[in-house]
Structure formats: structure tokens, C-alpha cells
Design goal:
Lyase, Ornithine Decarboxylase, Chain A, domain 1
Length: 370
Amino acid sequence: MADGNLPRAEVVVDLGAVRHNVSLLVARAGASGAATMAVVKADGYGHGAVPVARAAVEAGAAWLGVCSLGEALALRDAGIDVPVLSWLDTIDTDFAPGVAAGIDLSVSSSRELGAIVEGARAAGARARVHLKIDTGLSRNGCPPNEWAELVAAAAGAPEVELVGVWSHLACADEPGHPSVDLQARRFREACAAAGTPVRHLANSAATLDRPDLHFDLVRVGIAMYGLNPLPYAQDLRPAMTFRSSVALTKRIAAGESVSYGQTWTADRDTNLALVPVGYADGVPRLLSGRMDVLLAGRRRPVVGRVCMDQLVVDCGDDRVPVGEEVVLFGDGTRGEPTATEWANTIGTIDYEIVTGMYRPRIVRTYRDAR
């Protein structure tokens, strides 16, 4: 139906879906005696960190996780006071504000530990730290041959409280991959050497698939947004819908072509609908000629190339009104495309699709806020 009040580009986030997903994950973790950390880095995977964090806590998440100290402090500034872990910052980061705000900080090297110690001294408070061991991802984390030295340095620093040990799995989304058990063994060995009370290894996939790896705390990211990291079904509800509206309609004759490069030519007289979103708004140009939208109750093909600011939909003999809602992706319940469908079509992951929705021209609104 036509709606003249629709923004040109809108992301609608269903916080009820977030609560549903987090409740499911909390129950899975709780069955193993583990608490749940809801990961809201990258502005809540494009969904909005603060509203999503609040919904996650309402649904039972006991911790929040972010990438950077700035992200963590934004949660504190919003009045969110549950434990927050921040795990990756640059060499010149001033950790004093994080220590003062009670942010838990990840440590992967003696250099990082030294910077956090300086921050603790400046803040006049002890820093809460989680030591990260590299168990096989070969990304962030302390190499095993330096682990004993790092553990000893942290234990010997009166400015820090050693809260946890953690690591990250490389292939948990591939059930049965041998690296998962190898990483788990290395993680257990690292924990035994450190003796800390909070151990966390499981991501979304391992939370759903490997209860033996829940330890004391699980970190759930993509699944809390309703996107399934496993190759078999889970009771998850995608929380994000991306929509726009029809800005212009026209009828073209058979033989006329559409958009740059004239890669699509009409084989019949047809009606076109212009939608004012493009790759500047998160629609990958790689979807040109390979995507549909939900418009006037039907899936319809996007024809020609996706442009920076617009795309064109072939409506055949249907005449759709200007202002009609166009759903680019959603939860799929109305037959519309999903973020996962977009990702599969262009050979990427749905994480990239939803995080790519945090853009200046996109209005973000929320359903089922409390």
C-alpha cells in the first residue's frame, strides 16, 4: 500500500525478535550453567547498539561485548551498567576512562597490559582484565609461547584484577570441523595455567551446537540478530527489515534498455518502478540483475545495474502507485528476500549485509521498544 510517510531508506529493527533470539540463546547457555554475553559491536551489527543492548539485557543477557573502548563507553553513557567487555583498541588508546567506567578490558600482549596498568593508575582504580589466548585463529590473542609470561605479569600487577580467560573459534559454524576440538583443548590448557574464574570460548554457532564448550560464559553475536550461523535450521527470527518506497513510475516500450551499460533490455512493453536506494545505501552493486524486492504483494525483479542512489524494478503490466512500500529484505515471512539470500547470491556472509546498513541516509526505526 502507498505510504507517503516512508523515508527514502529505512531499516526497521524488531526488538521483539532480538528478545526472542536472546532468550533462546540464554536458555541454551543456562542449561550448561553458563551466562550469556550479547555482542553489540559495530553499532549492534548495524541494528543500533544501545536499543539492542537494552533488549538483550531485558531478555536475560548478563554481559555485553564490544570491539572498542569507545563503543563500551557509549553504552555506559546511555545508562547501561551491566558488565561490558571491550577487546580491541589501538596502541595509543587511553584506557583510564574505561577503567573508571568499570569496563572489562581484553589483553593479548604485555604491551597492552602495560597500557592498561597506566590507565588504571591514572584512573585510581583497578582494571578488570580478560587475557586472550590465541588457540588457532591466528588473529588477536596471545601466542601460546608467550602465555605463561603474560599470565605471570597480570597476576603480579596490583593495578589489575584478573577476571577471565578467553579465545575465539575459527570454524564453529562448520559442525564437525577438527579445528574446534583442537582449539578447545588448547583453551583448556591455557585456562588451567591461568586459573581465572570466568572462561569463555563459545560464539553463536558453538552456543547452539557445542554445549560442551559453554564453560562459564558464551558470547552470542549474529544469532541474537536472528541470522543462523549453522547449516541447519534454528528457531531464530531475523530482526532487520530494509525498506524504501516507489519514487517514480513509467512505462517503456519493448526494446528500451535500463540503467548504466544498458545491461537489461525489455522484451515487451512494461511498467518500471524507480526506488531511491542504491549502493550508497547498502545495496551491493553485485546484486545488479540478481535480486528481487517485495512490491505490491509480489516479488519483482530489479533490472539493470544498481546505481549509487537508485534501482529499477520491472512490474510488468502492473501499475504500482508512487509511494508504495518496497521491501528489499526482511525476515522472509511475507516471501520477501532476506539478508542471507543477498549474501548467498553474491558470495559473502549475512554479517556483512546487515552491518552495511549503518549509513547516513538510512533512517533507523524500532518495533516493540519498551
